[in-house]
Known about the structure:
- This protein is mainly α and 142 residues long.
- The protein is built from 6 helices and no strands.
- The chain has helices at residues 2-12, 16-42, 56-68, 73-82, 86-107, 113-141.
- It is elongated and about 50 Å long.
- 22% of the residues are buried.
Amino acid sequence: RHGIAFYRACLQSAIASAVKDVFNFLIDQEHNHVRIFTEMKKALADDDLPEDYPGEMRNYINSFIKKEVFDSPAEASRKAAELKSPLAAVDFAIDFEERSIRFYSEIKPRVRRSESEKLDRVIAEEQSHIGRLDNLRKKLAE
């Protein structure tokens, strides 16, 4: 949801014209990721998590997200509004995607084995996003 907020805010700014197609694609991809993680959460029973105390995993994930990604969707929108050029937006988007991959890689050992393949697919998609953004960065730099 943080990624969706960031990309939407970029599209609402003056930098939208140069990054519109790629960022719209990324918004669709992030919606798909929300769906995947929502399904994973629905399938997860509280007793499936090996926790030392109730809520340990939720606290861990929330802490990691705040440190590595954004505090909230509002923070993502604020950050996008601060970016002054399409190139700055693309650079930040690449960094965001890289941090997302670190997050997913960090939680992968903590999910059920049956969900690991879904996480691998999301990581692969995030890696392809970086490639797409890097191509856009090269075009903008020309």
